[in-house]
Amino acid sequence: DPAQPITIILDGPNYLRWSSTMKSFLKGRKLWRIVTVDKHASVKRQDETDDSFADRLEDWDSANQRILTWFTNTYVPSVNMHFSHFDLAKEAWDFLASRYTSADLAHQYQLLSIFNRLRQESGQFIDEFHSQMSYYWGLLAISEPKWHSISELISEETRRLSITSQQSPFITAVTQRPDNSKSPRCTHCHKIGHTVKTC
Predict the structure, then answer these.
(1) Which of 192, 195, 170, 190 shows the shortest CA–CA distance to 182?
(2) Could you state, in order of their start, the residue ranges of all structural domains in the chain?
(3) Which pTM was predicted?
(4) Rounded to whole angstroms, how far apart are CA atoms 18 and 21?
(5) Is 12 left (phi over 0), alpha (psi -120 to 50) or beta?
(6) How confident is the model over 124-158, as pLDDT tens digits?
(7) What is the DSSP secondary-structure string of 10-50?
């Protein structure tokens, strides 16, 4: 159905699945750049005639309105009521992202809970169960935060350890001392390795 291009209806909790499917659909129609505003037609090029600019602006506006219609037709009414004031597909997309990705941790917890409860039912084929697991695993992968590369994390860890050892030679010396009876003991917290003055 041209009016409803994807079968997933956004109800809030399924935002990640909806946005991933909608993004793929728009990329397949070469319309994703309109959502990211890489492809904007509001500025006239120097070598462009007035008629050519008007045609290009009309084409861009038509595509923008088509995307907004697709968005509107794939929301439940409670989500849909927020979109009457958006004129640009990018504005609507950004609003949805800010509204629903703030709950990523809760969503990840929900997915992990579902994933943890998954069991192969009696009489269920292994292929069907595997597809079910793969579906939730894919949703979980989409919701994961974008972490730094392993090499960046290792570098940061090394840097912090280096700073700690440079700034705290006393702590390093104390931890290397085998006899705790010779180490100072704090009279406030009763821990070994410092005094009440440095507690």
Answers:
(1) 192
(2) 14-165
(3) 0.54
(4) 5
(5) left
(6) 888 888 887 887 777 777 666 554 446 555 656 66
(7) B-STTHHHHHHHHHHHHHHTT-HHHHTTSS---S--TT--H
